[in-house]
Amino acid sequence: SVGCLITNDFYAVHFSAYLKPSAGKQSDREALLTPYCQELPSPGKVFFAADLIDRDIRKTPIGIQVVELEKSEAGDTKTEGFKEIRIINTIEAKVYPSGVVEAQAELNKNGYYAINLLIGGEEALSEDDKLKIHFHVGGNPNGLSTQLLTLIVGGVVFLLLVLIFIFFRFRKKQIHHKTNIKNPPQ
């Protein structure tokens, strides 16, 4: 998986986050290589990777900030309605000719966070030069995990398919039974 696509009006990246496994799972290769998008299951040491889609910005210095966010009452979309409350990690601007921007941070609690890519480094003064990648740590912020939601949706679809099958099977038997009554065997 190359991660999720994150865009603003000017820039696009494929973003992935990797959570360092807990001490008991350090040797678990699958846990080590599990990419997350914008929902990380728990706090810990997180490695971020953003693949730059636009080749032109590979020649431009990019600074990185990992920030903790606080949800405010205003705004109701995924990226609006948040304010930055602290900077967790800052990486000085540099050029990424390979097209992969990497960072890491120790996130010590559940909550809302963002990684800000500052295109142009210190010259990234306008909001247009900032690609903000919002994410949440500690499961789904709406209360249900993605896996549980998938199971619920899958269960509902399965139940609907079973009901449709039973309906048509019952309907076929009724039609067959009515045909036999009108034309009894001789």
**Helix share, percent:** 10-25%
Number of helices: 2
Average pLDDT over all residues:
82
Radius of gyration: 25 Å
Query: Per the principal axes of the C-alpha atoms, what is the gross shape?
Result: elongated
The N- to C-terminal Cα distance equals 66 Å
Content of β-strand? 35-45%
Compressed to H and E, one letter per element, the order equals EEHEEEEEEEEH
Quaternary structure classification:
single chain
Low-confidence stretches: none
Largest sheet: 5 strands, antiparallel
Number of strand elements = 10
Structural class: alpha+beta
Please describe what this structure looks like.
This protein is of the alpha+beta class and 186 residues long. Helices cover 22% and strands 39% of the residues. It contains two helices and ten strands. It has helices at residues 29-32, 146-182, and strands at 4-7, 12-19, 35-36, 39-40, 44-52, 62-71, 82-94, 100-107, 111-119, 130-137. Strands 1, 2, 3, 5 and 8 form a five-stranded antiparallel β-sheet that branches. The radius of gyration is 25 Å and the shape is elongated. The model has no long low-confidence stretch (mean pLDDT 82).
